[in-house]
Design goal:
heterotrimer; A mainly alpha (about 325); B mainly alpha (about 350); C alpha+beta (about 575); A: about 325 residues; mainly alpha; MetI-like fold; 2 domains; two-stranded antiparallel ribbon; 13 helices; 2 strands; about 65% helix; about 0% strand; C: about 575 residues; alpha+beta; D-Maltodextrin-Binding Protein, domain 2; Dipeptide-binding Protein, domain 1; Dipeptide-binding Protein, domain 3; 7-stranded mixed sheet; 4-stranded mixed sheet; 19 helices; globular
């Protein structure tokens, strides 16, 4: 019996996926130029939550949501926002999560030793940041840091033993992951966006901050396995620098599951955006994203057409990304 | 091993403490204080007797409330005075944080601002609903995810597998509130199929068994929502990992020994593929037990998520901090458990303490 | 599939014991609440659900008659007699009903009223809201000849003092202060007690007893003289109220509507989600669904099956959707600029779009049904041409870059509009304003935020325009709380206030002569339109859906939107309907 656990299928699906992604990118880039009867941010007060209509030339082809916004226009505006905000957020959150998780898994709590000088410098920086009294103290600390780093540079062997401390990286990363998970979302968001309205970049930062733990958890788990693999042990035995082993040998293997995982996190991110839109954080109703269209369903749950448009588009994007990821995985393997 | 475990648990306790302390301090620096929530909103015409509710008048009221809630003390041992020439001031032990810590060490988690009830009692009440639901949902979801992943990882072809895969992706795309609402509109709707209760209590004169039956039926919809919600993110990465493992060297060896595809998957690929997901699995139960607000709101369940979300919205700090402490503790415990499992599954994987 | 069968199995199990029985007088009436009352402390008055519940447990001197939307005597025999003393005090002579008793048969006396008012000023109790509301009552003078007669001395000359002085739950003195220790302290002494001074021993003892009673969760520790008692309370799920078998008002020969209590059992189901509540109504899990949102109301009315089993009511409320302008902002200091911006809101289409056209438009902060309504003023309407003209009059000039600039101002005209998120009506209004302003070249930033953040920003004056709901009532006309210059920093978010308008606002609240009051209020409404610190768009409607079998449904424009204690199932069930 021929065991075909996984064979490379005809490339049709792959090309279809690429075509959809290209279409999405095109729609996103050209959204402001398309001749649409309605703007995405305008409320059509005569048509609140109307189902799709095709009869009139300037009808709402995909219906309107409970605020009176045109779903089709919102879909295209949302495609643009997907390109400039959601996808970068997914990529950056995955990268950040992967790096944090991989470092935590690789070095654990004892593995990463830092020169004491770093601690002294960090303490000095903290001192300044908090504007603590005794303003000569940070200079002392900084001086100690410089002296220590000079000494440790000179006496490298000694420094490795005595002038360094272990950074509890694993506990730190897991602690932050737990913090982000355990604090009620509302409190977390109020803390993050307290004060003036977040700019686009700050909003991106909030999304990344809320989204990275999933990737970190996955990569940490994989890294625990990878770091005891023979090839890593061999690299260690050959005296390579730990950082180099981590970056060149361990990290690529630990990040394997991310290929399948990253497309999924796009959906989680859109759900997150939807929740934020519902709370009015980071975006008013005039900034339309797929998430905010889905959020407007909450006002009126029977308007299926509001969910259908972004839902189908999101599903297609997800499947396309998964198909591309699968093809990439095959490529990596072969 | 025992020393390692004790060290890990100690570290987890310290981390939970640190997290709760952070939330304790951060929550009190938020805009919109509890007194703003508790006092009737100013700028309202429904209380004509109040006269000109002047700012001074309101300040007096706020002060009385702050005093009653114990908020008039400084927040921490040191605080920074407001204003541009901010100076650090030392307050000694007469501060809110110290009072909280001392009470906590005596087993007193504080009292809710809104009704004066002990935080621990409120959390316990909510957990009576949340814990069984979360346990059942986590168990079902993990079981289903394993079965589905083994099924999906076998052969990429086959129409049915494609359909199941697409369905799982569709589930992942669907926001939880839509999923739960869809189920509600489908299965508890007199215009459609009306077979499951979604609100209310059991019949007043019911026997114990009838009541148990009622609650089982009542739990069906929330349970289904939760299982469907977490299923794709458990299954889909597992499928990818399984496929990856089956192409590893040992699988080829096993194949050469004449094992079937399913045997290879189950005996060799699965233990390895599950490893990276262990942390996620260990985190699943505490996450679900901490409550999924949307599901609890839709199905009118008095669970933990709703309790904490409402406390957060009302700036009920003692309850929020208590909830965070409990949730963080449970999650950190889950992580320690995951590490123990790593060790049990593969002794080489013993993580550093 | 497996769940389907599992589910239907359980459903069978359940339906076996809960076949929809015919309604009898004793069948509980299930009412939807959006949130748990959280605390049933009679002094706290913390949220609408709690106030509703407390009104079932306790009685006040005067209570709201939902049929006529006005106060009616409950514990009081009649409306109080009004006298004036000096130029700042109002004396109200009350007489309690002879028949009024506590559950143990003891009569309700003036000393109980005195004790209740004193409790509102005991430190350490959750009484801040009561204190703010009834702090104007300075003294209770008890008639030495008749323990049921007393005079409330009020520090107010407001014409409405009489009607609003009696709406607090009266609590029994005997239960909390059996030794009458508080009687020796005057109400005014307690009111003026400095926060820094430790309370008198008698006060401390009463406070301790009150706290020990844990009234927030166990209201049965302090039984009131109301018609119901709390039978059970599952937090965040259900509250069950049972009618007392022997209630004093049953013996009254002709009980007024505020002293009628028809339902034998009232069950409040806490269903936070609106869509789920609508389904529960359709499934007969609840019988009354007050405050139905517009869209859900529309869907229920559109459904043939729902129309057959439900009745629908709409009643204009006293809640006003209002836009406010920050008059302290340099760009908005000129009233013509504010007027111009106000012309860009479209109340007509917004009313149709968000409220199914069911609300009421208004010229000012008074409902058109009020006898003080200024009907000679034009209703606010969408008028972009007028807005353009007003902008130019205010000195704004449109530059080549499309921005409006005013000489002397560094920045061009741009507006930040704040409102509470999660509220679809606010969002739609914001979108409408934004697109109308965009046509004139005025950039608008919409800033929805969580409720507490928005309120904090409004109080700090960090906004240009806001949209919010101002809750009104028909009982008093006191606009000083939102427009007096002394209320800047608390209720007056707009920063509006001039000496002459302040005088007008005080005059409105104190004027007793109806004709003069009418004149003052008409002038007030004209000034609001002229100065435009706030733009009232329209009064929102209250919508109610209920099971068709239910009788005596009295819809109202006052919270909770219907008379709870009037509801009843049909009195006689025809025997044929019993199988």
């Amino acid at each position: 019996m021929k065991v075909a656990l996984f064979s490379s299928r005809p490339q049709f699906g792959y090309w279809l996926a690429l075509a959809w992604l290209a279409l999405l990118a095109g729609a996103g880039l050209l959204a402001p130029l398309l001749p649409l009867p309605y703007a995405a941010a305008n409320a059509d007060l005569q048509h609140i939550a109307t189902p799709p209509e095709w009869s009139a030339p300037s009808a709402h082809y995909l219906g309107t949501d409970s605020l009176g916004r045109d779903v089709l226009a919102g879909l295209l505006a949302g495609a643009r926002r997907l390109l400039v905000l959601s996808l970068p957020a997914v990529v950056l959150a995955t990268v950040a999560g992967a790096l944090a998780g991989a470092a935590a898994g690789f070095w654990g709590n004892r593995g990463l030793r830092l020169p004491v000088a770093v601690a002294a410098a960090a303490l000095a920086a903290l001192w300044w940041g908090l504007e603590l009294p005794l303003s000569s103290m940070p200079y002392w600390l900084l001086g100690i840091a410089i002296i220590l780093s000079l000494v440790s540079w000179r006496l490298y062997r000694l420094a490795a033993r005595w002038l360094s401390f272990a950074l509890p990286l694993d506990s730190l990363v897991l602690g932050i992951v737990t913090l982000l998970g355990a604090v009620p979302r509302l409190i977390l968001l109020l803390v993050l966006v307290a004060g003036p309205t977040p700019t686009q970049a700050q909003f991106l930062g909030v999304l990344i901050l809320l989204a990275w733990p999933d990737a970190a958890r996955l990569v940490r788990g994989q890294m625990l396995r990878v770091r005891v693999q023979p090839f890593v042990e061999a690299a260690r035995a050959s005296g390579l620098h730990a950082g180099r082993i981590w970056w060149r040998h361990a990290l690529p293997h630990a990040c394997r599951p991310l290929l399948a995982f990253a497309p999924l996190s796009l959906a989680s991110l859109i759900a997150l955006e939807s929740a934020l839109a519902f709370l009015g954080i980071g975006q008013g109703p005039d900034i339309v994203s797929w998430g905010s269209i889905l959020a407007s369903m909450r006002q009126d749950p029977t308007t299926w057409w509001v969910a259908a448009g972004p839902g189908v588009a999101l599903l297609a994007t997800l499947l396309a990304l998964q198909a591309v990821a699968k093809a990439r995985q095959l490529e990596v393997n072969n | 091993m025992l020393r390692w475990l004790i060290a890990r648990l100690g570290r987890a306790a310290a981390a939970a403490w640190l997290i709760a302390s952070l939330v304790f301090i951060a929550s009190r620096l938020l805009p919109g204080s509890p007194e703003q929530q508790a006092l009737a909103e100013a700028g309202d015409l429904s209380r004509p007797a109040a006269g000109v509710l002047s700012a001074a008048n309101q300040a007096q009221n706020r002060l009385a409330l702050r005093r009653r809630l114990g908020l008039e003390l400084p927040l921490f041992y040191v605080t920074r005075s407001p204003g541009p020439p901010g100076r650090w001031q030392w307050h000694g032990t007469a501060n809110q944080y110290h009072a909280w810590v001392v009470a906590l060490l005596h087993g007193d988690w504080g009292h809710s601002y809104r009704d004066g009830q002990p935080v621990l009692a409120l959390l316990r009440q909510a957990l009576v609903y949340s814990l069984p639901l979360a346990g059942a949902a986590a168990g079902l979801a993990v079981g289903l995810a394993l079965a589905l992943a083994l099924y999906l990882a076998q052969e990429p072809g086959g129409l049915l597998r494609q359909v199941v895969f697409t369905l799982l992706s569709a589930l992942q795309v669907m926001p939880l509130f839509l999923l739960a609402l869809g189920l509600l509109l489908l299965l508890a709707n007199p215009d459609f199929i009306n077979i499951l209760p979604a609100a209310g209590q059991g019949p007043a004169d019911a026997t114990r068994w009838q009541l148990a039956g009622y609650w089982a039926a009542r739990a069906a919809l929330p349970l289904l929502s939760l299982v469907l919600a977490v299923l794709p993110e458990l299954t889909l990465p597992l499928v990818a990992l399984l496929r990856y493992e089956t192409r590893a060297g040992y699988a080829t060896t096993a194949r050469a020994k004449g094992l079937t595809a399913m045997q290879i998957l189950r005996r060799h690929a699965l233990p390895n593929a599950v490893l990276p997901l262990l942390t996620t699995l260990a985190d699943l139960l505490p996450t679900l037990a901490a409550g999924v607000v949307v599901v609890e709101v839709l199905f009118a369940l008095p669970g933990n998520g709703r309790l904490l979300a409402e406390a957060a919205a009302a700036h009920d700090y003692p309850l929020v901090v208590g909830g965070v402490l409990l949730t963080a503790g449970a999650r950190l415990l889950g992580l320690v458990l995951a590490d123990v499992l790593y060790f049990l599954l593969d002794p080489r994987l013993r993580p550093a303490a | 599939m497996r769940y389907y069968w599992l589910g239907s199995l359980f459903a069978l199990l359940v339906s076996a014991c809960s076949t929809p029985a015919a309604k009898q007088a004793s069948t509980p009436i299930h009412i939807r609440w959006a949130r748990d009352p959280e605390t049933l402390d009679p002094l706290a008055l913390s949220n609408p659900s709690a106030i509703d519940a407390i009104n079932l447990l306790h009685l006040a001197l005067l209570q709201v008659d939902f049929q006529h939307n006005k106060y009616a005597p409950a514990l009081a025999q009649d409306f109080p007699g009004v006298r004036y003393e000096g130029d700042s005090l109002t004396l109200l002579d009350y007489q309690l009903r002879e028949a009024a008793t506590w559950d143990n048969g003891e009569p309700v006396l003036a000393t109980d009223v005195d004790f209740t008012l004193k409790l509102m000023h005991c430190p350490g109790l959750p009484n801040e809201n009561s204190r703010a509301q009834y702090g104007f009552i300075r003294q209770v003078r008890i008639d030495p000849a008749n323990p049921r007669r007393f005079t409330l001395v009020c520090r107010s000359r407001s014409a409405e003092t009489a009607s609003i002085s009696g709406d607090f739950p009266v609590l029994p003195e005997a239960a909390l202060d059996p030794a009458h220790t508080l009687r020796s302290l005057l109400l005014a002494t307690l009111q003026d007690w400095p926060l820094s001074r430790s309370p008198a021993p008698a006060v401390a003892a009463v406070v301790r007893r009150y706290q020990q009673a844990n009234l927030a969760r166990q209201p049965h520790n302090l039984p009131g003289c109301g018609p119901y008692r709390l039978a059970s309370w599952q937090t965040n799920q259900e509250l069950h109220f049972q009618r007392k078998a022997h209630w004093w008002a049953d013996k009254l020969p002709a009980a007024p509507i505020v002293l009628q209590a028809r339902p034998q059992e009232l069950v409040f189901s806490v269903l936070p989600d609106d869509a789920a509540a609508a389904l529960a109504l359709r499934r007969h899990d609840i019988d009354v669904y007050p405050q139905v949102p517009a869209r859900i109301f529309q869907q229920l009315q559109a459904s043939q099956a729902a129309r057959q089993e439900l009745v629908f009511y709409t009643h204009s409320s006293y809640d006003i959707l209002t836009v406010g302008f920050n008059t302290r902002r340099a760009a908005l200091r000129d009233r013509r600029t504010r007027q111009a911006l106000s012309r860009l809101f479209d109340p007509v289409r917004l009313l149709a779009a968000t409220q199914l056209g069911q609300g009421t438009r208004t010229v000012g902060l008074l409902p058109p049904s009020s006898s003080f309504y200024n009907d000679s003023l034009p209703l606010p309407a969408y008028a972009p041409a007028e807005a353009l003209a007003l902008l130019q009059q205010a000195g704004w000039q449109r530059g080549a870059d499309g921005h409006w600039r005013q000489p002397g101002l560094a920045t061009p005209l741009a507006v930040v509009l704040r409102y509470r998120a999660e509220e679809a009506t606010f969002a739609t209004t914001g979108l409408q304003f934004k697109s109308a302003a965009a046509q004139l070249g005025i950039p608008v930033t919409l800033l929805p935020a969580e409720g507490s953040v928005t309120t904090a920003a409004l109080q700090a004056g960090d906004f240009d325009l806001y949209i919010r709901l101002i809750k009104g009532s028909p009982f008093g006309l006191n606009f000083a709380t939102i427009l007096h210059s002394e209320a800047i920093g608390s209720g007056n978010f707009t920063g509006f206030g001039r000496p002459d308008t302040d005088r007008l606002l005080v005059a409105i609240s104190t004027e007793g002569n109806l004709a003069r009051k009418r004149q003052l209020l008409r002038r007030f409404q004209a000034i609001i339109q002229e100065e435009m610190p706030v733009l009232p768009l329209f009064f929102l409607p209250y919508r109610l859906a209920a099971t068709r079998q239910l009788q005596h449904i009295v819809p109202s424009g006052l919270k909770p939107g219907y008379a709870m204690t009037a509801l009843a199932w049909p009195a006689a069930v025809p025997p044929a309907s019993h199988p």
